[in-house]
Structure formats: structure tokens, C-alpha cells
Amino acid sequence: MDFITNIDDMRDYSRKARGEGRTIGLVPTMGYLHDGHLSLARAAREECDIVVMSIFVNPAQFGPGEDLDKYPRDMERDRRLAAEEGVDVIFAPSAEEMYPGGYATYVEVSGALTETFCGGSRPRHFRGVATVVAKLLNIVAPDKSYFGQKDAQQALVIKRMAGDLNMPGEIRIVPIVREPDGLALSSRNTYLSEDERRQAPGIFRSLKRAEELASAGELSAARIKEEIRKILRQGRDIRIDYIEIVDADTLEPVETVKGNTLVAIAAFVGKTRLIDNVVISS
Asked: Most buried residue, 109, 146, 205, 282, by most Cβ within 10 Å?
């Protein structure tokens, strides 16, 4: 497995691979890999000749007071896990490499896709996400890029950006990977205390309850939200950031579950902010 930290070297690698007629799959991550990340690598391995995994804790998507400095990092462990999964290249640039002195250009997707949900509570977050992904797509020039459904809003933002800017290559969305008790895998799960970890699966239980209600014919978004709140309030350390029921493609709020509807939750478990979602089809 190759390990590249320089943008020009990464470009040269990709250019050579394309010249040899090989397809490239990109898996963007912030590292501290778990099986959710590795599922993206597996999907890329199935569909592409070369798998490039980026590992970059992107400072542009962290706001003041967020966890940039304490975000978990373990490059030695990440390299081992990536190699075991058959990743061909890790691209791990420094912040100075990606955002050199005087950097002043950002990519911003406007409208409901970025102004609601996490965009409402984390101003400029998606500007940072869109900017770094645009840079990665420009540097690596992949045929396909892989993102997780857990970050549903992020996935929609990236698809819109790539489409609006006529970026080549396909954006692929891979299903959420969960712990046996339903908790969505996240690098931030490591922040949870033992007691908080026991409470955290309440987020998934509330989403399953939403699915059950819709399957039983309860299609009122307001009533489904109230049932979700009841379950989340059972966790003494759970504080709701948002509960949203929206169109799965546009993120526009809906009053009634119909078509593909996204039920999304952000909640603090102790001091750790976790997100999760399900898509209900009716």
C-alpha cells in the first residue's frame, strides 16, 4: 500500500493509473477508521481497480469550540486497517498542504440542503465539507467516490455540489453500518463513557419506532416526532439537537410521510453529538 502526503504526488499517481486504463475509487475519511469506513473501501474495491482512501481531519468543517483538537487520530492503526482491507493508496495531506498560507477560496452550496439540520446548528460546516471534497475530487480525479448514508445531509450536499459544478465521476452512497445494538458506527463513539454508551442506542430505537409507526399506517410527521421524543427522553444524558422528517431528496419538511422520507436525528449523549437516520418508503 502506498502512502502519499503531497498533492502533486497524488495527482501523478492518479494520472498514471488512468493512463493504464484503471479505474479509481475514492473513500474520503477523517481517519480513526471503523467498519463504516471500511465498508466504503469494500464497496470501492468491488467496483474499481484502485482504491484511494484519504485521511484528513479537515479544519474547515469544524466551528469554534468544536472538537478539532481532540478528534481521535491514530495513523498507524489506520494504515494497518486500510491495508488489511485492500486499500491501494492512503492520501494523508497535512492541513498546510491543503490550506496553504493565504488560502481564500471556498465552495458553498446554498438553500435547504445546507441551512437546516446540521447546517442550522453548525454554521459553515458544510462550506468546509464541500470545499475539502471538491479539492479531493480535483486532486484524485476518481471515477467513483464513496460516502456513508449516516451523514445523509452531507451526502446530498456533495451530490448537489458535484452535479452543479459538472464534476466528472459518480457519487456513491453506502448504507449505515451499526453495532449489534443498533448504534451507528462513528469515530465520535469513542468519546462516550460506559454509561453514555448504554444510553446511545436509544437514538436507533427511536428511529425503529418511527419505521414501525409508518408501517402501521401512522403517517403524521408530528405524531411520529412525538414518539421519537418520548424514547429519547428515556436517556437521562440524551439531549435532543433536532428531530427532522423531510423529503429524502430535497430535505424539505413534510407533514405526512410519503414517498421516500428521511427521519433524521441529532442528539447529544453527554457532551458527544451523534447523528443517525432512516429512510422510510411509503
From this structure: 146
